[in-house]
Amino acid sequence: MFAVRPSKLQIIFAASVLALGAGSLRAQQVKADGGMELEEIVVTATKRASTVQNTPISITAIGGEELRERGITDVTSVVQSVPGISLRTSGPGQTELEMRGMASVSGNSSTVGFYLDDTPLNAPANAQNGKVVIDPNLYDLNRVEVLRGPQGTLYGSGSMGGTVKLVPNPPDPKAFGLSAEVVPSYTDGAGFNRGENAMVNVPFADGTAALRVVASELHNSGWIDRIVIAEPGFPLETNQLTKRGNVLAAPVANDYRHVNDEELKAFRASILWKPLDQLTITPFVMYQRISQNGLDQIDSDPGTDAHYQPFDDREPYTDRFSLASLNVQYGLPWFDVTSNTSRWDRHATYNQDGTEEFQWAFSTPSALLPFYVSQGGIGATSPTPVEDDRSDQTSEELRLTSKGNGPVTWLVGFFYSKFGSCYCTMVLIPGAAPGFGTQNAFTEYQNTYISQNAAFGEVSYQWTDSLKSTVGLRRYNYHTTVDAAVSGFVSPSGSDDFLHLTSPERNQGVNPKLDLSYQPNKDLLLYGTVSKGFRPGGGNQPVPTTGLLGSVCEADLQANHGTASFVQAPLAFGPDSVWSYELGEKTRLWEQRVTLNSALYFEKWNGTQQTIPLACGYNYTDNSGTAHVYGAEVELTALVLPGLIFSANGAYTHATFVVGSLEAGITPGTRVQAVPEHTASFSLAYRHDLVDGLVFASRLENDFVGRRTDATYTINDLDGYDLTNMRVGVERDHWSAMLFAHNLTNERVILDNAFQLNINIPTFNRAVLSQPLTLGLDLSYHY
Length: 783
Hints:
- By secondary structure, this protein is mostly beta strands.
- The protein contains six helices and 46 strands.
- It is globular.
- The relative contact order is 0.15.
């Protein structure tokens, strides 16, 4: 349908003309003298209300109206347009966030805090969903706040690189509200998609309470195929087991089209009740379910839009998430009291065909299989690892925040959380029983428990009308226990008998912060910040040193440590931490029609948690090396003409190791994985009044991500890419109709390489492929 593809330059030029002929009137406001200025967004990044331009930290805020105008409904789309932040993703609900060089490729915990209002959603578990965000639907969101730099004082562990905070619209007791959205679309080479969103806000109890309900459902068609090779035609590896056989020349038994289709159902509801003027009680519930028949992954060899299998095994994925929280705010004469209590549960399941991985592993000279058959299979049935991840967290934060406009302001609080998870995986190979006495290749139950508590506080002093200082401190303590039980003939147990391992890890410390800001006038803010952040340590999956793969893994461990004697992989690893030094400015120019915000920073990352890949296909995490990160960010927004807004941002991040590690294969100068050196984004938005209240609106946006590396069996290079989106349509008081194009130039982008669920192999990677050109219509109504 889209066989004729003009050049990218032609498409962007044509789209630019449309955009200029047609943002956001909502992002500008009329001044008292009739002039125009950019509107500011109120944020709660410092856990008290202030505007972006008056908050002395590096922060990007995207308001709800802008989210709607840009058609943003997922976290990935937000991240791609914000400087200093990047991502690793395998598709919906499987995105890791990276900020300012603090990559979370290794370890159990994310390096970026992720919050839904005041509820932390970070999950420090050694599982597929341990570091990935839940990817909530963003319909009817008030704003997204992205805080760059360590947020260890106010947000605690896992916020080494920064914090992303999603703030839903609260219930409104003063007015009835209703909105709805329907989004049909078509993806090139895939099929038709649909999305429906709705919100209703109902006041009750004589204007002292309100109920707000949001519901979403969507279906995205897939663009990746699952191809089953006819038995016994699946080719064996060549070139000493380092080159995949020619699957393109093999006979095909089944070709399942578009298997990575996505279904999402989401619901959230909240009640705001003010029984007293000074008391607000807000219970909140949320449920979301994502399911796919296959992941957004292709085989890097041969690199077609497909995954190739010797056996007909589906690879479904499901992710269910539920949350309940209670927020209570009470205003006293001198300070406000806020309590947020929450509990969430998450359950994700993965199936992934492991035939080739085990075929490669069993074909090594040290691991010959008695039942290995001549046709190139490893039995009558494929080994299909099933991973079942369950996690839950209960948390409480209580804080007191000072009132008034005096020279001294303060905030103190206490935080507690209790997290538990089960990383449960099983690989059964019925054909293995004659040779090994069991069909159990590998079974593991890894239970992780982590409890955290912290006392924190900040105090600010206004020395003069222009000069202000802030000192913060967080005293933290955590305790982790990882209980693992493994069995199977490729496990450290080597049989059906379970090997039980326990690895406790605990730590305590202090995260300080010092901020000095200078604001000579309302249009200029200068600041400098010194701060510290950390993330917890955790436990490793045991690496076999006996049994089928034991000799190979043991030799790898000895080579990594530079010794010929016995070496065992660590069962636990410690926390890592970062010191950050930042200088920044925030400027408003041309009578508040231009904002220019920028920052320079340097970070020292100590005890870096690193993934140590082994040639036997296993890996583990250890604290290896020290990294230095320095960089800069700049954001520009300009109200060029009434209705025409130009925005641009960019970031430079230089993240390398200065202290290497023989174990991790790191030498001084090695780049930190998953960190693009350059990112950039620009957009043009224009709105123009037509007739009878009708408004013409359009927007063009281009996001660029530079080269980076990642690790599977080896270190891989990923090319840079840029993606272009466009929207154009009309709006009236209560409705809008917008045509849109996502990935306007139909770029084919490898976003990431993903770890295999079982063992990583040298013959191919599971590569994550971007969604092709998608054209659609966004119809919305609000009352």
